[in-house]
Amino acid sequence: MSQVSFRSKVAFLCSGFVLITSISFLLVFSWNSTTLTQQQIDKRINSGENVLLEYFSAKEKLLNTAAKVLTADFGFKQAVATNDSATITSVLENHSNRINAELMILFDREGDLVSISHSKPLDLDELKKAVSRLAFTGLTAQFLVMNQNLYEVIVLPVEAPRVIGYAIIGFAINEKFISELKRLTALEITFLSNTNEVLISSLDPINRESALSIIEQKVSTWLLFERDLYRNNRINMDENFNVTAVVSASLIETYAEFDRFIISILLIGLLILSSGFVLSRFLAKKLTDPLFSLVKLTKRFANGEYTIYSKINDETIEVKELHESFVSMGKQIKSREQEILYQSRHDLLTGLYNRQTLTNALSKLLNTNEKVLLIAINIRNFRSINDVLGAAIGDLCIKGIAVRIENFINGSIAEPTHSVYGRLGADEFLIGLKIASVNNKNSESMKECIVDVMERLSQSLGVEEMQINLKFRIGVCLAPENGNNAHDLLRRVNIAIDTARRENEAVRYYKNGEDEAHLERLLIVDELKDALHQDDGQLYINYQPKLNLITQRIDKVEALIRWKKKNGQFIPPDYFIDLAERSGLIIELTHWVICAILKQLVNWKEHNINLKIAINVSSQDLSHPSFLDFLLQKLDEYKVSTEQITLEITERDIMENEDLIISRLIQLNEMGIATSIDDYGIGQSSLSKLKQLPIKEIKIDKSFIMKLDEDKKDQFIVGSTINLGHQLGLSVVAEGVENEQSLDILRSYKCDYIQGYYISRPTSADELVNWIKDNDY
Ligand code: C2E
Ligand code: CA
Ligand code: CA
């Protein structure tokens, strides 16, 4: 739809209104004047007709009198009786002269012409024929057409006392007569015969025939239609319809008048229309001007200018109110925008800068090309504070720390322009300081500064009448040594904190290259994810046998995962298992391993091979709420009994989430699934702990076994550990047996199982089976 402006809409509507009004006025006026004109013409014709009829009846009276006088004239009667034609003629002439009658005829009783007075010579036969058509109507006049001439006549018998003849007296309706009539009636008069021939007409007395065409003539007009020149009315002049008079009113004058009227109305209409149009443009402008200034306001709002000083040049109450509400809307938007802006830039809990704002502020600080010290602070075990004391206390701790950071920056170290600080995330804060603002600027003073920060933060925090002792980790980065843009530096200071966490240190400086290793680790995690999803043979299981020293047979193997990337690169399991644990991918990976192992067990069962498999699981697996259900479901699905498998978990993993893991170990024990403590000896579990654990087996870490034959201390530790294990009713496995001497030592210690390269390296399932057959295990 095409777009129309409000202004032209208003102008269009108003002009339309004016147009319709003036057209209606015009129509009403012209209709009224047309009818008025019609009525006037009717009146003119009516009165003309009356005059015409009056005129004829006056003439009739005149004829009557003349006839009566003539027929009563004794001398005339005598002259008729005696046939004295000279006297008759003179009497007739006298009488006709007296009343100006053009026709005076006398017939004898037999109908022969006796005398005639007429200016023009008459055809006698014609006369006789015409007279024979006359009726005896007493004193009523009638019309006589003779030789194309028209007369008004009266016929009277001449009695003496008996009828001796007939007298006819009449007026000729000639040019003079008709022009007299025209003058009296103010109309054109035309007489027609019963055959519709023009007898005489005031229109053209000479050329009679043309009269008819004149009265029926039409004229074309400046308006596109034609109109009659005359308005005609027919009058029957006698009872026998022998003569008809047509009275014609000329319309020329009327039309001229009417046209003048119409033109003036049109002109007035045009005037109204154009002034209406101008007025409506003006009105539209008047209406839309305030709208335009409001539109300007909204545009300014869109540009973020919310304060309006300008006034509106319009006194209308509505417009004023609208303007005022716009102004107050501007104020409200401004304050709301400021609020939103504040919220988007700050951390709502502490009021410190959030990560985004901090990044920007740090960028500005770095732009000064001065050295910057970045300190990322992490509260250790913050989750347990939330868990134990509740989120509200946790929030108060965060706020307390924020206040300390703020005081510390503002109070002792730097000017505000030399520092940035804010909250990076849940339990992480960041401080950025220009080195110039750190006393002495050397690396010693920087260390002192960090120690200072740590000391101030670590002071016990009073929260709701409690004294809470928080512990922290600090990651440190330096610009430009460790990077020159805010994003890199923030990532690297985070890496420093991560490393501190991983290596359980309080303060950790970022070392160049750690970032790349970090990125590589991220890449490996992605690739591992893909390998798990594609399950296209990149991942597979190798099996390492455990030799039962009592039976000298292989009845158990350990499943060890392998990853050979499509490009042939071999990724060591220690490395990617660690990454899988950090990224949470371990759950999926263990699921995959369990399924692969169960399939292998089914396959071996089909080939009558009866081996138990030990599976390595991490603490995350055991902590996962649905791990045991998953394991049971899969055992059920593959129809593998619980005795066929053992789960290995490292001593360190047990310590990580002791209570939960112990409860899981109890559950596993109840389900009939054996568990084994892996890498035993390098963790810090106490002997009393070992007593509590519902386990079947301990695996002495290979670091004690690999050089067992050489190292007396190792021999002592291993010997006593085997002893202790046995006393607790546990089976003991030694892994990492690399030579016969070590094997012999372990045999002498009564170790239950040995595992190591000396027996066999981890191999594929098929190779393992062949190896067992070949070696008769
Ligand atoms: P681990 O559970 O302690 O596995 C034993 C490791 O010692 C294996 O290394 C094995 O090849 C190696 N080993 C065995 N005998 C000898 C020997 O005589 N000398 C030496 N020097 N080493 C020997 P591998 O296969 O590289 O696995 C490393 C670690 O990766 C495993 O240590 C385990 O913690 C982890 N891992 C391997 N497979 C899995 C798995 O499927 N799941 C989980 N969660 N971890 C696994
Ligand atoms: Ca193991
Ligand atoms: Ca081990």
Which strand order do you get reading across the main beta sheet?
Answer: 19-20-22-23-24-25-26-27
Supply Rg.
68 Å
Gross geometry: rod-shaped
Ligand species: ligand C2E, calcium ion
The residue fraction in helices comes out at: 40-55%
Average predicted confidence as pLDDT: 87
The biggest beta sheet is recorded as: 8 strands, mixed, barrel
Proportion of beta-strand residues: 15-25%
* Terminal-residue CA separation: 91 Å
Tally of helical runs: 25
Provide the low-confidence segments as ranges. Answer: none
Q: What structural class results from the helix and strand content?
A: alpha+beta
Number of strands: 27
Write up this protein.
By secondary structure, the protein is an alpha+beta fold. The chain contains 25 helices and 27 strands. Strands 19-20-22-23-24-25-26-27 form an 8-stranded mixed barrel, surrounded by 4 helices. α1 runs antiparallel to α3 (85-99), α7 packs parallel to α8 (317-345) and α16 (586-606) packs parallel to α18 (627-637). The structure holds ligand C2E and calcium ion (CA) (2 copies). The site of one calcium ion has 4 residues, from loops.
